Amino acid sequence: MKNNVRVIREYMGISQTKLAKMAKISRPGLSTIENGHKQASLDTAWKIANALNVTVDDAFFNQNVRLVIQGINRSPAIVTNG
């Protein structure tokens, strides 16, 4: 399934490894989701979107990624342990 995760992540200037840590998922798992080889579960989609500080809809379903990235603050969300 095509999604906007990679475009948003690269626009924000963060690596797959950093995003995976922020979202508390594996880097290989993130890679398969970004490449469209695997669909993210709702829980994983929420974790990724939250780490990117965007909605699940913008990260995974919005067809117009330009509009998505125009509204993004380039600072990733701060993830706390808790």
Quick rundown:
The chain has helices spanning 5-12, 16-23, 27-34, 42-52, 56-60, 65-70. It has 82 residues and is mostly helical.
Tell me what the structure shows.
The protein has 82 residues and is mainly α. It is built from six helices and no strands. It has helices spanning 5-12, 16-23, 27-34, 42-52, 56-60, 65-70. Helix 2 crosses helix 3 and helix 2 (16-23) packs across helix 4 (42-52). It is globular. The termini are far apart. 27% of the residues are buried.
Describe the sheet with the most strands: none
Question: Could you spell the SSE succession in H and E letters?
Answer: HHHHHH
Over all CA atoms, what is the radius of gyration? 11 Å
Structural class: mainly alpha
Based on the model shown, name its key terms:
56% helix; disordered C terminus; single chain; 82 residues; mainly alpha; globular
Topology diagram in text:
Layout: H1 5-12, H2 16-23, H3 27-34, H4 42-52, H5 56-60, H6 65-70
